[in-house]
Amino acid sequence: MATETSTNGGNSIIDPLAPEQTYTVDASKKDTSHKPTIEDVIDEEDLEHPPPSMHLEPGKTNNDSASGAETVLSEKAAGKQKAVDEPAAEAPKPAPKLDVTSEEAFPALGAPKGKAAASVSSAWGKKPTAAGANGINGGVNGKTPTSGISSRSSTPASGMRTPASMVPPQMGAGRGPQGISLPGRHSDYIQFAPSELIPPNQLKSSRQEVIRDINRKSKAKIEMKPGLTGNTIMFSGTGPQESVREALREVASKLGSKQTVKVPIPASVRPHIIGRGGATIQGINKRTGARIQVPKQDEGPDTMEDDSATIDVIVEGDAIACGLARRDIESIVNEKTSTVNLRLKEIPPEYYPFIVGPSNAGINALEDGRDVRVQVPNYYQWADQAPTPPPGQGQPATFTPQARHPISISGDRQHAQEVQAELERQVEQLRRQLTMDQMDVERGRHQFIVGNRGPSLQDFLEETGCSVILPPPGDDSEVLTIVGPADKIEAGMNKVMDLATSMSMASVDIARQHAQTAPDPQMHARNLTRYLQQRQALEQLERMHNTSIVCPECRSGGPTAWEVFAQDGKNTMRARNDIMQLINAHPPSRTRNLNVDPFFHEHLQQQYAQQLRREFGVHALFPQPEEVDDFPHIVLVYEAPGTPSDYELPRRQGQPSAAEVKEFEKALAQAEQQIMELIQSQQDVALRQVDANPKFHDKVKRYVDREQATLSPDQFPVQLLFNPSPPSGPQQQRRPSGVQVRGPSPAVDDLTAKILAFLEQEEKDELERGYTMSFEFPSKFANFLIGKRGENIKKLRDEFDVDIQVADGKVDLKGPQAKCEACKKDILKNLQKWQDETTHVLKIKPQYHRDLIGARGSQVNRLQDRYSVRINFPRSVQINDDATDAGTEVGSVRNAGRPMQGPDEVVIKGPKKGADEAREELLNLLQYTIDNSNIATVSVSPEQIPKLIGQGGREMDNLRVTTGCQIDVPSARDPTGPDGRAEIRLKGSKKQVEEAKKLLQERVKVFDETVTKTIEVDKKHHKSLIGSGGSNIRDIVIRAGGPSDSRSLARTVRFPPPNSDESTIRVEGSAAVVDKIVAELTSYAEQRATQVTDSIAVPPEKHRLLIGRGGETRRALESQFNVSLDIPKQGTQGEAAGQVKVTGQPSDVEKAKAHIESLVKGQEGVTVNVPKPLHHHIADGGQFFRRLRNDHRVTVDHAGAQLPPRPTGGAEARGRVNGGALPLITDDPGKAADAHSWEVVETHSGLPDDSTETIPWVLRGPTEGVEKAQKQLEKAIEEAKKPSVTGYLILPDPRSYRFVVGPGGSGVNGVRRKTSTQVKVPRGGPGAGNGGGEAIEVVGGKDDVEKAKEMILELVKEGEANNGGRRG
User: Fold this and answer.
1) Which of 8, 268, 696, 1298 is 20 to 30 A from 1185 in CA distance terms?
2) How far apart are CA 534 and CA 554, in angstroms?
3) If you average pLDDT over every residue of the chain, what do you get?
4) Taking the chain, what is the end-to-end CA distance rounded to the nearest angstrom?
5) In 3D, which of 883, 904, 881, 908 has the Cα closest to residue 894?
6) Residue 1010: enclosing H or E segment and its boundaries?
């Protein structure tokens, strides 16, 4: 190796902490192809050299200077160089320092790196844009730093003295007279302070003996002499360059004391120091010989994101090792901190919307042209701190920063600083401009101001120039804060009021609905609210009705009313109606509160909640930890037996029946009994306090988890509550510090004793933390020990509480001796298992890999866990990430062991027995997969796929269940074939595939043969085309051969919505059916186009003759003459009230008009004046009218006369009779009729002498029928003028009333005809609810009433005799 030429012709110095001074590079290495001779080399005296006092050029290292300002000489040139006189000096002039940053002197892993990045001038968050700004390596104004400290001038000092260079300024690089270094005579030195060397009394041999021993083994010669300055000791070496360096390294290792250096780094760089799988830190350890410890990652959210957060990396080793390691660490830091993450915590969040600006204009302006990203929190709800009150008149507003919600700036350092400065300028401007005001708005309307249900904050800002701040959901405040310029505050407040009042609101007080049936209506309302929220019923209602439902916060003593908001008031009422039905379906009888100690809640919820649901159909509602104070009980809610996922919340109008309530209470009682039995089997719950240092809390938790891992499901685990260390303050100091143990008394006592023993042992172990142990471990199994993402080694560290390091075929353990021994034993045991590993390579076609791996790796994970093996599928298999992690990746071992794994090779590795069993099961699974891998495809139109899937996947799920076939339906994102069709993939056994394919092809055929045509029909004809109740269009479709069911019919012919202006009718179906329907619709439309409309005068009182009962007469006329009738509605005034419009073909219209005229003319009425006091008596509740219509086809109207009110007399007598004692029920048919109750009450004393007012009864119908009806009416008037009585007959068994009514009412009608009385039979029979003894009412003359009673009793006797005495 060619000897390097020193810049001053003398010796060189090793200084590990002076990276700013480097070696010159041998010119022969720069151009190995050039072999110069002595004659080729220019004389040294002809070269231009810098003066001795010349400084380095800013921005260059000594290496740059040597390579640029000086010509590097080869060996031959060095021998030819002319001597230069050296000035006299008081001390020997040393060579430049040995630079530990030199890649040639101390090669790193991999290829040599380029020139180090420019140094920093302050914290890691800021680096200079050019090296010359602050000089080289932290120098100022172009001056080279004179100390040997790190180039990171901002790095805090470590507090440790390392070997320092004592090179005088005039001996620096590039200064002083030039000399040469002869081949094989390279000189270097290092020097130490006495404190940096091992004391002589601690050395096994003296320093001179150590040096002699090194000289005997090395080609270099080492000498110890006093240092250049101060009380230092120098070790110089002469000889070949590599030998000198190795010898000096050995001197530092054997004589230098162990040093500990703290290197502060940004927390965000921590992962880069460690590297993937620890590769980087292990490489530094191996290269430098130092031991490096990186602290664990802090759980705080800011640690990895904010460059102001730092951690200390601990470097242990001799002076040179520490220096080299520090250099490498700082090199990584310099490389990884070219960008920064800044957090601005001093800006009040009220300014954030104005910084962002409308449509993100402010952020875009900040980021435009800069390599930076600005993130501003969306602040429209205060979280930790409410805005301050509005300022007084003429006073500036006060806005308080909130450090928990900072603005984040990430990106290029210089650009980030520019953005920061710009933001600070904007904040000052906003502080002068902005003010604030507040207003109260109803809490439920806040959501419509800004947010998901209202406009965005940016839109609000753009429209009003203001921002608005809402209280958070958990706060009861109704105060809104409006922030903006003083001249725009009023506009902002007006906008808030407009938004708040734009929504209609309805309130539903849950407690009021069950106020009469619930012991505590407020508690029931809160329980029901929590239950429905958990079942997501509110979200369903909101989606269904496009509303927003605001529930009050469930807390003791709080409100219980729900508020329903919507822009459309109809939606509000619909949602409220649905809510009422939900509430009615969940009465207090459907729920039950169960007081259970909160200790049991978590275990009951995890272990038994699903069991209660399956066995009893009871849902258990457990309070959240923060709700325990308000709701300490468990709420049991009866749902229904069956699968919870299929359960739909019930809705009903009225209260549940007695049978339903009994079912509720039975299931709730069973669930309560099971829970209480589980709890009662446990002893009393006890609480113990264990004092424990907070540093042991995590260990205690892991220890308790291990202790309770084997508990049976019916055992309640003990709970731990960790108390943090008490902060300062007299009140806080009284809080306990340690661990609270709570659970069943015996378990708590036992576990407390174990925890105390564990803590005692931990205290002892702390004293032995310095113990270390090392043992050999084959490197090829290192990844097995570390595990995927370090899982195995982390588990060992937690289990044995020791520090474990794996490197260079060794395992280093640090911790208590006993735990290190146990950990070593476990590691060696695992090593023996890994060494027993067997590998099977199975040839399996790639087409089966996906099925063998299973969804998300389920199949392969199951095999790996069962047999403790690793199963590797080739990476070419296209599966999801989770499956890749689980089934195809074992880390570097797999790649190293089988780097050329074929696409059809599956590798099984593990213990011989497990690998053999896994191989056998995998082959069996393969055979099953092959047998069930019959594949077929069905080509479908992409438009048909939603119909094949069905609503919620119902149709496709039914098809899968029916056939047992696996059916893969392409999604909308999947590409289609060249013909534009999609492929449905079928997989399964041969029979399953054939059956599924047949069913799908049938559906596809129907769809493919389906055509769609449209026809334009004037909107005014649509109603007549559809017909009453859809009858007309149904007839058209059925005549054309289309479907008859309403659902299919609706798909066949689709009319546009009634409120739209469209006139296009869409017809869908087979070609033949569609053509027929279109032809008939076209013909109908053409006919309607030639229709005429004419009017005919019909008096309003005769309109009913054209309408008929239920509209049957009108429909018959329209069908008979193929016309449509437009009859004026009741209440129409003027001439239009008597005009009936007839629409149709001219000839049909004329025929219809003639028929209507004859119909009306033949229906001239006869008027009979009935005395007003007798009107209701004769009408008999409408029975008289029905008799006239049924017997004579005569109808009655009163020519618009106002009818008298119904008389109330007789109600008292009826109540008295109905409220009396019931007759005794007897099983003797002969005596049943005799066991009755009968009472006669005088109800009508005849027509008063002074009565002159009458009510017109207009009789209309056939002439013959009118005459008979008139006679019957006149007779009824005469009879009514006579005094009458009312008889009340109560039978012992309400089921006997059916014998009085008779088949089709023949019995009661016969009594009425024969006795001329009015008979009313109550609706009776089993389950009709008349078991209270309602009476049969008989009204008429006294004798007629008695006769009617006898006939009724006779009917009962005959009916029971014919029924054989059977009841019901």
Assistant:
1) 1298
2) 13
3) 75
4) 122
5) 908
6) strand 1010-1016
